[in-house]
Specification:
Length: about 425
């Protein structure tokens, strides 16, 4: 192609139109990415998770002081964002209706020193919201050691655990689920375990690492220099983008900001005069004090009524089930007090009691697996038209009659 053909090609009418269309599409994409799409980070957990334990052992269990894990955060959008909080929920894998515990972020560590499979955080400082810049990533070491409205949990070294990670991008906002991982004991056979730390790995080597060959990418081929034409085209596109898209948008943005400030100022003045000021005057003249109430004493009679109904149903059905069964293998109910009774069969024993004046809780141990722990929480709730109903944790609405059958079903299998 000679010089004349090149000038003829660039003098075609469709070429500026094509360049303008492409520039407009790219500008629209940049506008959507900057102002429409929300901050949506990609969060990944490291392969090692450490449970830091209290050195004091109580009944083969140790209190969990904090959970240590590394988190990688990626932000591929042109939007600044904040992560205000992290939390993990963990529970025993395979346990019947397991009790879940949530630990919240309490500290950050600049570095983690790993010696003989034991992790020691270094340069620890209080947790604070994490800023994520546009098109950036950040790696942090989290110490999650805070719990809300309860004491810290105790762990059993013989159990396996599941762990779920959550994060929050706004104060008091929605919690976002990251993923759920199964924790595998990372200590090798014959190696002495630490007295104060349990190490887990999230990797299942047999099912994940062997598949890598299916997903490896082909080796990229080196490109060639794009040349002067690419440089001039890119320069023209940037000029068109600024002149016909960015500059008008900046002008409209400043107009919108000005009108918004004026509008909000008038709204603030109206709200202050008509709403907030009358409330302030009323509180100064008639101070209102908050009253702290412990439990639900007004619901206690209804809670005892539900517990007695459960006891009567279980007694009636136990009499039918015990027909023809030798003593020692029969189902035995024993009333401890007005708010507690026990039910047992062979190696399995469960305590059923009234908690918080209204909730029926079940705690049992034993069965064919001596480590098996059974927990249920049947909560009394108030619905519309002053109607009450029971809600079984992790299951949904449940009647006393159906809950009695559920308990007998578990006893039949576990005993």
């Amino acid at each position: 192609m000679d010089l004349l053909d090149i000038f003829t090609f660039f003098s075609q009418k469709w070429l500026p139109n094509l360049v303008g269309t492409v520039g407009g599409l790219l500008g629209a994409y940049a506008f959507v990415d900057n102002y429409i799409l929300r901050f949506n980070p990609k969060v990944f957990t490291g392969s090692q998770v450490f449970f830091q334990l209290d050195p004091e052992v109580k009944h083969c269990r140790q209190e969990l002081e904090y959970i240590l894990l590394s988190v990688q955060i990626g932000n591929h959008r042109k939007k600044y964002g904040m992560i205000y909080d992290f939390a993990v929920r963990f529970y025993v894998s395979g346990e019947i209706n397991p009790s879940t515990v949530i630990y919240y972020a309490s500290e950050l560590a600049e570095n983690i020193r790993l010696e003989d499979k034991k992790a020691t955080p270094e340069n620890i400082y209080p947790f604070k919201p994490i800023a994520i810049l546009p098109n950036s990533d950040k790696s942090i070491n989290l110490l999650l050691g805070e719990v809300v409205h309860r004491s810290k949990d105790s762990l059993d070294r013989g159990q396996h655990y599941s762990l779920e990670l959550y994060y929050q991008t706004k104060p008091n906002g929605k919690w976002h689920f990251v993923n759920k991982v199964e924790l595998y004991n990372s200590y090798t056979f014959g190696k002495k375990e630490s007295d104060v730390q349990m190490a887990f790995t999230t990797l299942n080597y047999d099912t994940s690492r062997e598949k890598i060959k299916k997903y490896t990418k082909s080796i990229p081929v080196s490109g060639v220099y794009k040349g002067a034409s690419y440089k001039e085209t890119d320069k023209s596109l940037k000029k068109i983008k600024y002149q016909y898209i960015q500059q008008p948008l900046f002008f409209l943005r400043h107009i919108g900001i000005y009108l918004g400030v004026k509008g909000f100022s008038r709204c603030d003045k109206l709200v202050d005069e008509k709403y907030r000021w009358p409330i302030i005057v009323d509180y100064f003249k008639n101070p209102k004090r908050f009253k702290l109430k412990m439990g639900y004493p007004e619901l206690k009679p209804k809670g005892i009524e539900g517990l007695n109904l459960l006891y009567d149903i279980l007694s009636e059905k136990a009499a039918l089930l015990n027909l023809g069964i030798e003593r020692g293998h029969d189902l035995v109910l024993k009333k401890i007090s007005d708010t507690e009774f026990t039910i047992s069969k062979y190696h399995l024993s469960m305590s059923i009691y009234l908690s918080n004046d209204k909730d029926i809780r079940v705690h049992g141990e034993g069965g064919h697996s001596r480590r098996r722990i059974i927990r249920y929480n049947l909560e009394l709730k108030k619905g519309v038209f002053n109607q009450y109903y029971y809600h079984l944790e992790n299951h949904g609405a449940k009647t006393i009659e159906s809950f009695a059958v559920t308990l007998l079903d578990i006893i039949a299998l576990q005993s």
